[in-house]
């Protein structure tokens, strides 16, 4: 169950980060409320995962899920660059997260 909490925390982290784009500096009410809610849920889920998963591993995976998710959605939603170097870097983040998962006790 802690790994499911961590996965969900990462998904809400993606929602939080993407939501920031739509808040326009927290001047739009509903996107701002959704963004703050996503951040709160993400942090709560992360704290649940930290009951069992080592903090270094959990934090690295949580931020990795967020980074890869936001970078991927940036490509789709905001037409950001999909250069080979950028895609390689995203793949390296995924590889690192998988490595941490496989080596965690």
Automatic annotation (TrEMBL):
Topology of this chain in the membrane: Multi-pass membrane protein
Chief location category: membrane
The keyword Transmembrane helix belongs to this UniProt entry's keyword annotation: yes
Key words of the record: Cell membrane, Membrane, Transmembrane, Transmembrane helix, Transport
Compartments in which it is found: Cell membrane
Transmembrane segments: 29-47, 59-79, 85-103
InterPro entries xref list: EmrE-like, Small_drug/metabolite_transptr, Small_multidrug_res
Similarity comment text for this entry: Belongs to the drug/metabolite transporter (DMT) superfamily. Small multidrug resistance (SMR) (TC 2.A.7.1) family. Gdx/SugE subfamily.
Record's protein name: Guanidinium exporter
Organism: Pseudoxanthomonas gei
